């Protein structure tokens, strides 16, 4: 799965978790999720949905450190590569 495909899925999940997120405004960059209306609680909910959608495990600490779309997509891509190798 490409980074762009992961990004589209993450944006869909973010919009499902937090209705205030404007899909067209979210960019694959280091803009913090908080700028899009995602709170720390919403971030944990988003992480749970990401884990379900991509069948990966992300710790709460990893989720909070991955506080931007670019970082979260990178983390998911890394986890998917690790799963593919095992």
From TrEMBL:
It comes from the Bacteria. Keywords: Phosphopantetheine, Phosphoprotein. Pfam families: PP-binding. Residues 1-80 form the Carrier domain. GO terms for molecular function: phosphopantetheine binding. SMART domains: PKS_PP. InterPro entries: ACP-like_sf (IPR036736), PKS_PP-bd (IPR020806), PP-bd_ACP (IPR009081). Coiled coil: none annotated. The keyword Protein biosynthesis does not apply. PROSITE patterns: CARRIER (PS50075). This is Carrier domain-containing protein.
